Amino acid sequence: MNSDTAKEKIEALRHELEEYSYQYYVASNPTISDYEFDMKLKELEKLEAEFPQFFDPNSPSQRVGSDINQEFVQVKHQYPMLSLSNSYSEDELSDFDQRIKKLTEESYEYVCELKFDGTSVSLIYEDGSLARAVTRGDGEKGDDVTGNVRTIRSIPLKLKGTDYPGNIEMRGEILLPFAVFTNLNQAREEAGEMPFANPRNAASGTLKMQNASEVAKRKLDAYFYYLLGENLPDDGHFESLQHAKKWGFKISEHTRKCANINEVIDFIRYWDTERFNLPVATDGIVIKVNSRRLQNNLGFTAKSPRWAIAYKFKAEQVSTTLESVSFQVGRTGAVTPVANLTPVLLAGTIVKRASLHNADIIAKLDLHLEDSVYVEKGGEIIPKIVDVNDSLRKPDAQQVEFIKNCPECNTELIRREGEAAHYCPNETGCPPQIKGKIEHFISRRAMDIDGLGQETIELLYQQDLIHNAADLYELKAEQLIPLERMGEKSAERILKSLDESKKVPFERVLFALGIRFVGETVAKKLAQKLINIEQLKAASLEQLIDIDEIGGRIAESVMAYFQDEKNATLVERLKAQGLQFELDQSILNERSQKLEGLSIVISGTFEKHSRDELKAMIEKNGGKSVGSISKKTSYLLGGSNIGPSKLEKVEKLGIPMLSEEEFLKMIE
Ligand code: IVH
Fold first, then answer.
1. pTM given for the model
2. Which of 115, 384, 524, 624 is catalytic?
3. Residue 28 above 70 pLDDT?
4. Which domain holds residue 516?
5. Which of 133, 239, 410, 454 is 20 to 30 Å from 266 at the Cα level?
6. CATH classification of the domain holding 41
């Protein structure tokens, strides 16, 4: 194919793929199967690799994100990102309306929007192409998070149509939908990591992750509500948003124009309860004067616009009785106190239990049994006890005390320094920890054992057939077949699947072990750097911390794991049973030590390889690919369009530059 034809084909595919993404993620109206989409994307990727001169950071192929750690550069906002003043009652809204009436002679309309509870972002489009995405920061300047934002499928990289102004700024809210949030937290808990408290924290945490390819996996979403720039298509804010919708932005379908404050109040009353049926978190309604000309006349106070106000929903609260407190032990041994309540209706669901988090919270509430408590459902999914009505407490009420011993195995609980949670340290003898660890071991993303589930694990444990993962590999058909709801076929399936799991690669086996804080990504990093279990066991704290993304907390946990003799024995047994405890030979064969000891920063765009490919090559050859330039940097591997700040730094520190050609020669 010649270069002109390739260019045409690439552009057509990019356009087509953006349109499919728009239909799927913005319009909720898929027009192509996932398979066909993937095929077209592959075709585009192939052409882009063959014709690197047509590289475009806004190509749909870039939505997977780079996995080079990024530094966030601070950028000044062209228009400061202000906040809104809040109101909490209908009276306050009427006051707001009166203030506006006093400031203008004209008649005016309002626009009511949902107030999305995520993290705000400002997008700059130049000639219809996403040029920059910046977080709110302190309102004056924020972090440039363009690489991460490009991975959000509902955000257009190129605008649709032709009637958009050359320069626009679009502001909106980045969100993690409830369903995604629930899955994410489940995965975090499985990895022994702290779950996020609410979708808002999860969204802002994700947006600031250093690795864009990880952001891509998190499935963020976004809604837009504020268009800025000159030559906007309409004086009306509402009408402008409708134009923006045609350009491909996700604008909430629930935005309404209201003729007066009474209509605004109707809107608020409707959403006060209806919001619980939305897939994303909202914490109020935003009311704006529609005319942008009038908005300009009304202007701003130091902190917020005079032409808009937020109405905040009351977090719904009810009072009920605390019947008892139970303590649950998780896979990692963490003990969570749970309040058992007299069932009560709250925000559309019956609430029977509330999270009490930890001992400090119980003490702070000074909880007693039979207390009348206030339960609230705020941004958090699990309701929580926010207050106690101690005037109703009976004089002989019994204070709630945190247990001293494990409710499952009676071992004395420990509380590590600096941590709020209590733990049962009896990792290999405490039933929920034993079962939890095995359940994690067999889970889909770990060893992926077919036919085994929570119930079967429970049965096998009850029958004294398994106490740890290695026991699974010694199971015999005769032991499985007599179990409840098991038959010859199911038993066969389990044994076959166990046998097949001996091929599961080292990094997943490592994840399956369930070492605290070692989730999928960390397991991968450890496996790739240390190659086999012997080296991992022998690694010093310094060696571990030296690995990308591994800090002291993870390093200590890994060391503690192997220092425990029971774990070491388990690993030995699994190894003898034939599981993979070494990186695949084909990966190892491709490796060299040609770049050993070198630390290389990649910057710019390249002719032959993508940045991810170059990063992989550096690592395969024993080098270290780092995100930011320092005195320790050995080379800057530079393509075209290296950022000016990077160039300046390299010159100042006298760091040698490498071209793509030179680099490829080095590792030849
Ligand atoms: S308008 C100058 N509209 O709420 C006014 N903000 O408290 C700019 N938010 O920082 C904001 N939904 O993060 C506006 N429909 C909406 C919103 C919204 C959520 C957030 C936004 C802003 C904060 C203000």
1. 0.66
2. 115
3. yes
4. 431-586
5. 239
6. 1.10.287.610
